Amino acid sequence: MKYLLSLFFLIFFFGAKAQDSDPFKNEVALLEKKYDSLWDSTKETIVFTGSSSVRMWHSLQNMFPGHQIVNTGFGGSQASDLLVHLNSLVLKFNPKKVFIYEGDNDISAKKKPKKILGTIQEIVDKIKQHNPETQVVLISAKPSIARWNLRKKYKNLNRKMSRYSEEHPQLAFSDVWKPMLNKRKLKKDIFIQDGLHMNSKGYAIWYAVIQNFIN
């Protein structure tokens, strides 16, 4: 009996650990199910992916009505999470363009900008291996009220992503950091109550910047 209880505990423990090792499994599965019915494989596709700032951009398709937009943002994600789920969230759609927003949560999780960039490079390499013609746009980390104390680290990451983008064809850097500031001060009326995520004013700023990379 004691042996059976120990065996049961081990099975339960390692089963739970396996589930915890992929906290985004269910959310990714829901996104796949959603676009199984919405995505038209005969049309050119633009994928927006990354963390919650993309996931919560609910007006994306309406803002770019002349394009088929797939939004596979998944809240709380880091660049390493996108790398794990890249096939399901990006590659399966064989996109013409991919907009990536990662780094925000990575910095908050105390990852070094150099390490974050390394993971982003892996993501870009896999996209290029899948289709060398795919254009990739890295969206800069954004400033926010909640994480303003980390602004130096975000700016460091943005500089690294910008330089990396300049060195590679078919790769671009979309700077949303500067337009979200009034000189050196953060525009505080562009955020919702949590001080981290944006309201419609914030997304209007993003649209003004990103539309130049869509067309």
UniProtKB/TrEMBL annotation:
SUPFAM superfamilies: SGNH hydrolase. This is Lysophospholipase L1-like esterase. It comes from the Bacteria. Gene3D superfamilies: SGNH hydrolase. InterPro entries: Ester_Hydrolysis_Enzymes (IPR051532), SGNH_hydro (IPR013830), SGNH_hydro_sf (IPR036514). The keyword Signal applies. Pfam families: Lipase_GDSL_2 (PF13472). Keywords: Signal. PANTHER family: SGNH HYDROLASE-TYPE ESTERASE DOMAIN-CONTAINING PROTEIN, THIOESTERASE 1/PROTEASE 1/LYSOPHOSPHOLIPASE L1. GO terms for molecular function: phosphatidylcholine lysophospholipase activity. Residues 55-205 form the SGNH hydrolase-type esterase domain. Transmembrane segments: none annotated. Residues 1-18 form the signal peptide.
